[in-house]
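Known limitations

Structure tokens in this collection are predictions and should be treated as such. Users comparing against experimental data should check residue numbering before alignment. To illustrate the layout, the record for tRNA pseudouridine synthase A is reproduced below. The input appears on top and the generated tokens appear beneath it.
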Amino acid sequence: MRNLLLTICYDGSGYHGWQIQQNAVSVQQVFQEALVRVLHEKPDIKGCSRTDSFVHAREYCVSLKTEHTIPCARLLGALNHFLPEDIAVLDCREVSPDFHARYSCIGKEYVYQIWNNPVRNPFLNHRALHYWYALDLDKLNKAAAHFLGAHDFSSFCTMDARERGNFVRTITKAECAREGDMVTFTVAADGFLYNMVRIMVGTLLRVAQGKLQPEDIPRIIEAKDRKAAGPTAPPCGLYLNHVYYEDVK
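Generated tokens:
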């Protein structure tokens, strides 16, 4: 039995997230269908993250176990032949039997893109948030710096039917940058909560609007109350940028 790690990327505009759903098309469903066409079996695939509807991934990791002997290079090529143009396999390798795409993950990095120009860019439709008001990067970075470290991020999590657990996460990177009219918020952590990055972005935009100050972020974190933070930013600008594993990537 071989354990394979596949790294893929996808444009999430046409998908309701990674995880298979009853009445909506997901990335996992389409990827699994391509696997069946190549391997003539339906392996149990493990994704590194759930990812929300319409969120993109520049790097998403999948593990699966199979007895099929197809070489990794041939599997990569065959899958890319059958996958639609908005999903691609970047890499395939054999890993240790105990590797799991989700549980072996030690951290992730997300990027949120904001097109900061009075005029919308048609080529960034569904790929960046169009925000036409001025953005003060110094002010945003002062606010983002308060995210760093280990905190209970309950204020930055959308509560759903899932049981409440440990909401402490350790942020190792949180910074805004500008390249021309594109502003990006990059955040890395040992894990993320449901809608956490999008709520961070919505809160930073409240800072940009003067409705919050950078010094308000610690108070919002301490509140452990979703109502204390800003709105949830749209999914279109969010990208899973990098997935970290020990001794693998």
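For this record: The chain has two domains: 2-103, 106-244. The CA atoms of residues 27 and 243 lie 17 Å apart. Please report discrepancies through the issue tracker.
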